[in-house]
Amino acid sequence: MTIAAKIEQTISKSSWIRKMFEEGTRLKAQYGSDNVFDFSIGNPNLPPPEAFQNALEIVAKQKEKWAHAYMANSGFAFVREYVAEKVRTEQAGKTGKQTEGSGNRTEVTGKQTENTGNQTESTCNQTDGTANITADDIVMTCGAAGGLNVVFKALLNHGEEVLVSSPFFVEYTFYADNHGGVLKTVKSKQDFSLDLTAIEEAINPKTRIMLINSPNNPTGQIYSESSLKALGELLKKKSQEYGAIIYLVSDEPYRKIVFDDVDVPSVFTCYDQTIVATSHSKDLSLPGERIGYLAINPKAEYREKLRQALSLTNRILGFVNAPAMMQRVLPLLDGASVDINAYRRKRDIFCEGLANAGYSFTIPPGAFYLFPQSPIEDDVKFVKALQEELILAVPGSGFGDPGHFRLAFCVEDETIRKSMPAFKRVMERFS
Length: 431
Ligand SMILES: Cc1ncc(COP(=O)(O)O)c(C=O)c1O
Known about the structure:
The chain is of the alpha/beta class.
């Protein structure tokens, strides 16, 4: 054995996304990349906003002393001030109408469409939740992945559990394990909203973190304000019952990628013991630049301890601090993002085509993934059939939810359009 047994095992299991990536490379070499419809990976195909290029040039020309030096582990103070201001607005509770349950999404079953949307009055309208957030509540991180590792390292004792609703972003399993934790999953409801009864049953004295991801990868679901409020009440009750805080960690890299005027509710106003982990990998199309941040709810009971812990774990995990140049770029962008309308257009082209081909799915209100039902029970077999038509998708099993498959639509419009006859042929084979 030349490497650690656990890593040896993990390599041999290799994630589905990775497998499809490798398969894609092989197929593209064989058939030419234009003839392969690769929907396997969430690598944003839109360019970063123009403001990014300008900001990068400005920052590159700055000759300030210490511009590229070590800094406070949580990041430059002026950058954290800028981020704190953005979080203050983003996490302020809203008083208007919010989506509820399956929100204003539309179920598409085969060729029929049925609107299941219903709206309810917001139940969670405090606006004081974020007023006190300061630069000290922000830790700049190497992406959301880096941020989640920093949080897990700071919060988890050996054997403690991170609870997540499935389907889920599979890397969470490794992040929990990296820090002696264990990822536990609980199935979401049919419409991919939180199943609070099942969550209550799954919480136990070892539960240390409830992890949520909204808008969600792989479903595109956005959790409603009322369900987050109910989740907050539940976590509070359980924390009191067990005499230990259960933290809510909210992974939000897709917060800005939302369609049809749907809001992503604030988590800070729904539960005090909350930490947000996010990044600009998706909203600025900068996944390679590894820039993100953590934000501590200013109402968290051990706010100061959390600040110290997150800053320390950022350092001792070897990140030390988030990349200096990327930090300096952010305030110059002033909240810019990629063209969200382009993702909405791609979603609509894809949904229309899949519905016409007879697929059943829920129209995603956010992120850039579709998670249709596999027409046969065996999602792996179905994905293999798609592959024979040169379509690359990821089986739902790879996200802890067999019976579905994931399609990432951060690709050219043309790729989606050209793939439709192939999708149709595969459906015809199984129906
Ligand atoms: C739900 C979710 N969380 C976290 C990440 C990691 O993002 P980052 O590139 O910011 O580390 C991803 C990346 O795809 C994701 O989909």
